[in-house]
Amino acid sequence: MAKKILRGWDVTVKAFARRQCACTYSTLPEMPPCDFTPAPYKGKSYDESMKIRKENLTPALLTYYKKPVMIHQGYMQWLFDTDGKRYLDMFGGIVTVSVGHCHLKVTESARDQLGKLWHTTNIYLHPTIHEYAEKLAATLPGNLKVVYFTNSGSEANDLAVLMARMYTGVFDIVSLRNAYHGASPYLMGLTAMSSWRFNVPTGFGIHQSMNADPYRGPWGGENCRDSPSQVVGRPCDCGNGECKAGINYAEQLEDVLRFSMPKEKIGALFVESIQGVGGAVQFPKNFVKRAFDAVRARGGICIADEVQTGFGRTGDHFWGFQNHGVIPDIVSMAKGIGNGFPLAAVVTTPEIAQSMGNALHFNTYGGNPLACAVGSSVLDVIEEEKIQAHCAELGPYFILELRKLMDEFDIVGDVRGKGLMIGVELVKNRETKEALQADKVNAIWEEIKDSGILVGKGGFYGSVLRIKPPMCITKEDADFTVAVMRQAFKNHS
């Protein structure tokens, strides 16, 4: 009798174990195929590299994952580590690889220019900078015609701040809370996220307004965002093309302008089209337009930070600010502009550009021949391969597939985005929107990596999975990503 009971218990335990195993380790679909074979890696070992990183690189250098991935080679949407493992890159080198890792045409353009001229000062003429400046300016609306080339987004935003202050003669600038515009000493005050700010004097002349966030802010509902995915559980009584949340947040900005800025005239408003590092936060409809109107009514100018949202990523338009129905006075751009090559730019009007003639201004490497050849080739690829149209088509499908995860898992508090700039916010409690515990977010994030997909993290609490891939990804890549995330959520909910 005892043996029968033990045998029965044993069978029950094994059955339970099988069910648990099936639930925890169910078979994922195969990773989409790739016809590229990376070259064998012959460099320093992983352990040697980690030792050098610890001893010879700044300790402030952020490293992803418990066991960091050591990337050896890239091809389009794929990355390969030093052991030959393939990863689907759904973060694009922090929203930087736009048309694909080592895209053949861009690579050939760089190789061709390397054989002609690497560098010469822009005090001399060279063809590439003139050809590229004209081509880049042609993508922008209105009177945005004058281009200043730099090497990074922080440099570009630094210059935009200087330009605004020189033109208006006013030192004060306003940005939004939860914004990220760079981490240089000059920009640390403009960036309104405490995790990116050191305890040093910053922000003199910088003011922040309430972030216009329909999900976490006090106003916003189920019809406020320009996205296939709206906020859940917040009824919206907006009508006739008016977004009440947008009006309310714009009034908060006007309050800052009224009480915190110089009475006679203000300097500038600095705003991302969609907040990137802040977790793909989208503003309510018409908020940006109302904000621009309020700033200009007081003599200020408007600056659009397109470092992450430009070059067709949002799909419907080439530039993110166009989704808001506005034309800025200054536009900063970087990241996708060079498909990962160090390149950035500020574009403005001839009138504002004229103010920069009051003193000498020079950038040794900005607009060098190699960078301009790469940037020009990226624009060609975006046009020839219809990258923007691809984002407009694939983006809504991808977002709505991710949205289905909200119906399956309570930890998915919000899915948002436009085109291929997407955020998935994880929460402990949907009602309170309390962020999911860091250890659980990290466990999900690690499993997604172990399954062969690289995504980012962002948002104030680090609880937003950032999906901003090279814009060459396919529907199969999107489906595989959703399947991997579904399994990770199932294993850690």
Automatic annotation (TrEMBL):
Localization terms from the record: Mitochondrion
Cofactor: pyridoxal 5'-phosphate
Keyword Transit peptide among record annotations: yes
Keyword list, A-Z: Aminotransferase, Mitochondrion, Pyridoxal phosphate, Transferase, Transit peptide
An example molecular function term from Gene Ontology annotations: alanine-glyoxylate transaminase activity
Cited PROSITE patterns: AA_TRANSFER_CLASS_3 (PS00600)
Enzyme class at the top of the EC tree: transferase
Gene3D superfamilies registered for this protein in UniProt: Aspartate Aminotransferase, domain 1 (3.90.1150.10), Type I PLP-dependent aspartate aminotransferase-like (Major domain) (3.40.640.10)
Stated family: Belongs to the class-III pyridoxal-phosphate-dependent aminotransferase family.
Quaternary state and interactors: Homotetramer.
Descriptive protein name: Alanine--glyoxylate aminotransferase 2, mitochondrial
Record organism: Pinctada imbricata (Atlantic pearl-oyster)
